[in-house]
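notes to self, project folder thing:

trying the whole complex as one job this time. last attempt i did each chain seperately and stitching them together was a nightmare. two parts in total, labels are on each line so i dont mix them up again. if this works i'll redo the older ones the same way
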Amino acid sequence: NAGVTQTPKFRVLKTGQSMTLLCAQDMNHEYMYWYRQDPGMGLRLIHYSVGEGTTAKGEVPDGYNVSRLKKQNFLLGLESAAPSQTSVYFCASSYSILAGDMDTQYFGPGTRLTVL
Amino acid sequence: RKEVEQDPGPFNVPEGATVAFNCTYSNSASQSFFWYRQDCRKEPKLLMSVYSSGNEDGRFTAQLNRASQYISLLIRDSKLSDSATYLCAVNLNTGGFKTIFGAGTRLFVKA
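result (full assembly):
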């Protein structure tokens, strides 16, 4: 099993450009998440999904959109990139949200995004 | 006050030392608790879940104190390979899903 994969691994954008980050998981997990990690800030939840076709806002959703058209994929879009979106983006998945050990999150390797 | 707080460190300890980290949380509705390990420029990986009764996995012991709202991680006989950032995570059930991660505690184990 590949676990959770993310593409691309690195990307440099200019202000105003758009891009989509792709996350894929092969563990048949229901729940998927997108986080950003900034120095000293920890992981902050952007959006999440509790199943195919559903999405919800997390702590810092502004400037991002997501889609979950297939259970195994979760896409994060930046419509008009801003320098404040320079960060490391992690995707994660889990079996469930609140079920003891079942809500352990498995993370992808991350995407390092720089917006100039 | 942040919802989940950790001492950022860094903790610099010699090999073989015992080191302990604490993580405090502010929301009493917190339901499940975890410690993750994150190596430099890598993704977080689950180290261990934290149970109400406390749990141990080899050199690692995790404890939960609901009354004082903190979790702890104890590492005995530190190894060079333990050098990493340790993140605590707290899952809340507040009518919707919410996981809050601490900013992490950096540990350096020296030879």
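what i see at first glance: Chain A has a mean pLDDT of 92.
need to look closer tmrw
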